[in-house]
Write a structure and sequence with these properties.
Blueprint lengths: L3 H12 L6 H21 L7 H13 L12 E4 L7 H7 L5 E4 L3 H14 L4 E4 L3 H5 L8 E6 L5 H8 L3 E11 L4 H6 L1 H7 L1 E9 L7 E8 L13 H4 L3
Parallel strand pairs: 1-2, 1-4, 2-3, 4-5
Antiparallel strand pairs: 5-7, 6-7
Helix pairs in contact: 1-3, 2-5, 3-4, 7-9
C-alpha cells in the first residue's frame, strides 16, 4: 500500500499495538476496491473518498481493538451494512469467529462477496432482522462481544445487543463526541436488560472530529421477553 492515507493506516495501527502483515494490508486495499465498485451501484456508504474511507471506516473500526490483549472468543456485529466495524476486525484478527447481521439483501450480498474475495474463514452473514436473531436459541447468549456502529440510539441498541451476550460479555458501541445524554436516557433499558456502562472513552482518529466509544457489560441475565417483536424496540424504546 502506498500514499499518505495508506501510510496513515500503517502508522496508526502500529501506534495502537495492532500489528498487521503485508497480506493484511493487501486485504484492506482489496476491501476498499470492492466497496468503491459496489458503492456505485448500491450506495453502501455515503463516503466516496478513499482516504476518508481509511479514516472513517477502517481506522474507526480497528480502534475497537486498541486495548485487546487477545482477540475475544467470538464477535457478532449488528446492522453490518458494508461490514464496519466487524470485517476490519476480522482481517486484523484472522482466527476471530465473526457473525454479521444485516437485514438488507443487497448489503448482505456485498458482505458475502467481500468475504469470498478476501478468502476469510469462520465468518457468517445472517440476512435477518436483529429481533429474530436475538430470539434464536442458537444465537442467544452466545457471544463475548457485540459491535454496532450507527445502528440506533443506545436505549434501542441495548435491547438488540444484550440478549446476544453471555454473562460478562461486552457491547462496543462507537458514538458521537459526547454520549452522556444517550447514556442517561438508556439507564432504564440497561436495568431491565441486565447491562451497565462500564466505560466510555474518547476516540481520536487522525484528521477526524473527536468521537467516543461506549462499552456496556452484561451483568445479569436478559429476560426472555427481550428483544420484543420486529420494529417495537425502535418505535417504543424502553
Amino acid at each position: 500500500m502506498t500514499g499518505n492515507s495508506e501510510r496513515l493506516l500503517i502508522e496508526t495501527t502500529t501506534a495502537w499495538g495492532i500489528p498487521l502483515s503485508e497480506h493484511q494490508y493487501a486485504q484492506f486495499q482489496r476491501y476498499l476496491d470492492e466497496l468503491i465498485i459496489w458503492n456505485d451501484r448500491f450506495n453502501l456508504t455515503a463516503i466516496r473518498d478513499r482516504s476518508a474511507m481509511i479514516r472513517r471506516h477502517l481506522l474507526d473500526s480497528l480502534y475497537l481493538a486498541r486495548d485487546w490483549r487477545t482477540a475475544p472468543a467470538n464477535l457478532i456485529d449488528i446492522g453490518s451494512g458494508a461490514g464496519f466495524p466487524a470485517l476490519p476486525l476480522k482481517i486484523a484478527y484472522p482466527t476471530l469467529p465473526v457473525t454479521l447481521v444485516e437485514a438488507t439483501g443487497k448489503k448482505a450480498a456485498f458482505l458475502r462477496h467481500v468475504i469470498e474475495c478476501l478468502e476469510l474463514t469462520d465468518v457468517r452473514v445472517l440476512n435477518e432482522r436483529i429481533e429474530i436473531v436475538g430470539r434464536n436459541p442458537a444465537e442467544r447468549e452466545q457471544y463475548e462481544v457485540v459491535t454496532a456502529r450507527a445502528v440506533a440510539e443506545l436505549r434501542v441498541l441495548v435491547e438488540y445487543a444484550l440478549p446476544l451476550l453471555r454473562m460478562g460479555g461486552r457491547l462496543l458501541a462507537p458514538k458521537g463526541h459526547d454520549p452522556a445524554d444517550e447514556i442517561a436516557a438508556a439507564q432504564h433499558a440497561l436495568h431491565a436488560l441486565g447491562g451497565e456502562v462500564s466505560a466510555y472513552e474518547p476516540v481520536h482518529i487522525p484528521g477526524e472530529e473527536p468521537r467516543s466509544l461506549v462499552i456496556i457489560t452484561k451483568i445479569a441475565p436478559t429476560p426472555s421477553r427481550f428483544p420484543r417483536a420486529i420494529g417495537i424496540p425502535a418505535r417504543r424504546p424502553l
